Amino acid sequence: MLQAFARRAPSISVRARCLCTKPPTSPGPPEREYVQPSTEEKSALKILKDEFRPLFTGEAVGVEKAVPRRTDVLIIGGGLVGTAAAYFLKAHGEMFDVTIVERDYGYTRASTMLSCGGVRHQFTIPENVQMSMFTTEFLKHYKEHLTVLGQDPPHVDFHHQGYLFLAPENRAQLLLDCVKMQRAQGAKTVILSKAQLAEKYPWMNLDGIECASYGTEGEGWFDPWQLVHALKGKNIQLGVRYCQGEVVKFRYDSVPLYTSGGIAEKKRILGVDVDHPDGKRYGCDAAVIINSAGPWAGEVARMAGIGVDVFPELPVEPRKRYVYTIHCPDGPTLDCPFLIDTSGAYIRREGLGGNYICGASPSEEAEPSIANLDVDYEFYQEVVWPSIAHRVPAFNNSKLKCAWAGYYDYNTVDQNLIIGSHPEYRNFLFANGMSGHGVQQGLAIGRALFEYIYYSKYKTIDLSMFDFARFAERRPILEQAIV
Amino acid sequence: MTTVLKRCLRGTMQTQLHSVCCPKVFSLEQKRHIRWKFSWDENHLFYLWKTYNISPTGIKDTMLRSEREGFINEQRYIPAKALQRGPDLAAADMILNFNGRVKFNNDDVWYKTYEKGTSPLPQSFRPDLKLEAVDLADSNWMLTGMDHLHGCEHVVFVSLARCKYVTDWFIAQLVLHCPNLKYLDVSGCPEITDATMEMAYKFRHLQILNITDCQGIKQGEVFSVFLEDLLPELIIIGVDSLSKMELPLHEYEQQNSRFLNLGMSASIPEQIVGLRSETSEKSTVVNCKLNMSDSVELKVEPLKTESVC
C-alpha cells in the first residue's frame, strides 16, 4: 500500500499534464488474481455448479464477493459527497444498487475529516447560497433523517455562531450587494456598521474596517466526522454496499461511429477494476459511475481517459492547507463568531478552554507542496499570526498548540463545483472541485446527483451552470468569497 | 341511460342497429381512472419500490413519523393569516390550538382555549394587543411552529418545558424573532444541548434561564460562568440537577473534541513556540470560581488519529 501512496504524488504542472498522452502507469503487483466482472457469459449449468460448490467443498455458504461484479451506481470515494449521494439515492429511490469504493476506511487523508466544518450562507453565487441553506435545513432535522431503527439517534453538534466577514472601505459596496443577493435567496445575513461592530465585539480591533456581514441564522460549524458517521450508519441500514479498494483502471466498450471522415471509434465506460487489500483485482461493472474522489478526482478522471483521450481534462488538483490550534487565555469566549479577516485569515473558537482554530490561504506563488501532509510552521509565524494578532489584540498573548494539514480539492479554473455528466462519457458523473466548500455543499450535491440520475434534470437547486462543458466553452464561474 | 336508448332503438330503428357503430364513449370518471392506471409519471416508481417494515419497531416508527408529520402540517406558517390578523394574534391562535397559553401586554390574564374548543381571542386585527408571554409547556411544538413568532418582538416570556421535540434550532429561531426575551424555560427537554447555552448570550435582556433536567447539557457549570460575565443580571436555574463534569475542563475538552486531537503537538520548532509570552503559562479564566485546570503545558503526545467505523 505504501507504494500506492508514493505513486500518488503529482509533481508536474497542469500545462505539462495536458501534454501527456499516456495515462499514469498503474501496474499493481504482478501476482494479482483478476476476478472477472459480470460480462463473461455463464451457462445455466455453470451457475448451478457455482451455487452448489460450497456444499461439496465445505466453504461458507453464500459469501458475497468483496467487490460486487455488477452494480447500478458506483461511487468512487467515500467522503461526505459520496456518502451523501449514496444516502439520497437509497433513501428516495430505493431501486438503485449502490456501491461505494473507498480505499482508506481510516480517512487519514480525506478532506472531510480534516476540515474545520464551517457552514456559511455568504457566497456570491445564488446557487452556492442555496446549497449551503439546504445543508442547514438537513441538519435541522438530521435526527429524523438519519436515525437507524433500533439504535440510539446520532449526534451532530451544531454550534450556531455565525460567520463574520470583515470588509475594508473599497469592498464595502460589494459586500452590500452580496448581502442583498443572499437575503433575496432567503439567507438571514445582516450588515453591521463599524459602530455596531464596536458595540458587539469590543475585543476586536477595527482598523481599516468599514462594515461587516454577519449570518444570524443557520451559520456556524459542526464536526463533519459525526455527520459522515451518521450517514454511513443509515446507508448501511438502507443497503448501500461499502467496499474497500482502490480504483486502478476503467474498462471500455467501443462502438464504431460512421462519420463522413471515416469510421471512428466511440468509447463507452463499462466499469472499473478495483484493487482490494486481499490481493485480488476485481472487475466491477456499473451503469453510472460517480467521481467523488475529492482532491484526487483529477487522477481518477485521467484513468477514465478524460484529459488523455478526450479533452479538456478535469482541472481539479489537491492543494494543501494548514490549520493551527492556538491557546489564548484572554481571548473572546462565547461571542466569538467564525471571523474572516480582510487579509483572508480566519479564526474560530473551539470549546471553552480558550482554544482557537485559525488558518489562512496562501497566495498563488507560495502554494505548498502536496507530497505529504507535513505542516509548515513558518507560514503560521509569517502570515497567520500577524493577521489575527492585529485583528484581535488578545492573540498577542497566544501559544501555538498543534497544527494539521488537509487537502482542498481545488478547481484551478474557477474554484467552483463541477457536477453533471461528461459530454462524451455520459454515465460518468462529476462531483468535484468544491475548493474548500465540500462540507457545506456536500449534502446538496448528493441530492442533486440523485435528481440527475433519476429525473435526468435538477429539480430543487438548478446546478446546470456548474457542468463540465463550461471548460470547453470557456465560461468560468468565479466565486469571490473564498476562504 | 343506455338501456333506455336501446329500447328506443329497438322500437324504431331495428333494421339499422347493425350498421350503427358508435364509438365507446367514456365518462369523465372512467377517463380519470384509465389515466391513473396507465400513467407512468416519475414518482410512480417510488410507490412501487417502497419497502414496508412490518416488525413492531417498524410499525411504531411509522406511526410516530406520521404523527410528527401531522403536527408539522398543522403548525405550518400561513403568511396570509398573519397579514389578516396581525402576527401577534395569528401566533396566539396557533399556540392556543396546541394547548398553549398566551398573555398579552394589556392585562395579566393567561388565555387558554375554552373547553368547547372556541377561542377567546378577537378575530380581527387589534394594533394595541401585543403578545408578551407564551407558555407551551408539555405540548407538541415543532420547528415550523416557531415561524409564527416572526414579528412578535414584544415577547418576553417563553416556556418550552418538557416539550419532546424541542432542539437547539428552536432557540436559534427565538434569537432571530424575539431578541427581547427575559425569561426562557427549557427544563425537561431531552434534546437541548450546550448549543443553547452558547446562544443564550444573544438575548441581551435575559434575566432567568431554566435548564432543570436537560440531560443533553454536559458543561452547564462552565457555561454559567461565562454567561455571568456577559449577562450580569442573569440567573440560571437548574445547574445542580445536571450531571457534573468529573474531569477538569482542559481534559474534558481534549477528550471530547476531535479537532483538538488532530495534528501533532510534538514537533513545533522552538522559535515558533517562543511566540508566546511568559504570562500565558497559566491559563486563568477571569471570575472563575470552579475547579478548572490552571496550567496548559505543551505535552509531547503521539499522533492521535480518529478511526472511523
Automatic annotation (TrEMBL), chain A:
<keyword id="KW-0560">Oxidoreductase</keyword>
<dbReference type="GO" id="GO:0005739">
    <property type="term" value="C:mitochondrion"/>
</dbReference>
<comment type="function">
    <text>Required for the assembly of the mitochondrial membrane respiratory chain NADH dehydrogenase (Complex I). Involved in mid-late stages of complex I assembly.</text>
</comment>
<dbReference type="InterPro" id="IPR036188">
    <property type="entry name" value="FAD/NAD-bd_sf"/>
</dbReference>
<dbReference type="GO" id="GO:0016491">
    <property type="term" value="F:oxidoreductase activity"/>
</dbReference>
<feature type="domain" description="FAD dependent oxidoreductase">
    <location>
        <begin position="72"/>
        <end position="450"/>
    </location>
</feature>
<protein>
    <recommendedName>
        <fullName>FAD-dependent oxidoreductase domain-containing protein 1</fullName>
    </recommendedName>
</protein>
<dbReference type="Pfam" id="PF01266">
    <property type="entry name" value="DAO"/>
</dbReference>
<dbReference type="GO" id="GO:0032981">
    <property type="term" value="P:mitochondrial respiratory chain complex I assembly"/>
</dbReference>
<dbReference type="InterPro" id="IPR006076">
    <property type="entry name" value="FAD-dep_OxRdtase"/>
</dbReference>
UniProtKB/TrEMBL annotation, chain B:
<dbReference type="GO" id="GO:0031146">
    <property type="term" value="P:SCF-dependent proteasomal ubiquitin-dependent protein catabolic process"/>
</dbReference>
<dbReference type="InterPro" id="IPR001611">
    <property type="entry name" value="Leu-rich_rpt"/>
</dbReference>
<dbReference type="GO" id="GO:0019005">
    <property type="term" value="C:SCF ubiquitin ligase complex"/>
</dbReference>
<dbReference type="InterPro" id="IPR032675">
    <property type="entry name" value="LRR_dom_sf"/>
</dbReference>
<dbReference type="Pfam" id="PF13516">
    <property type="entry name" value="LRR_6"/>
</dbReference>
<protein>
    <recommendedName>
        <fullName>Mitochondrial ATP synthase regulatory component factor B</fullName>
    </recommendedName>
</protein>
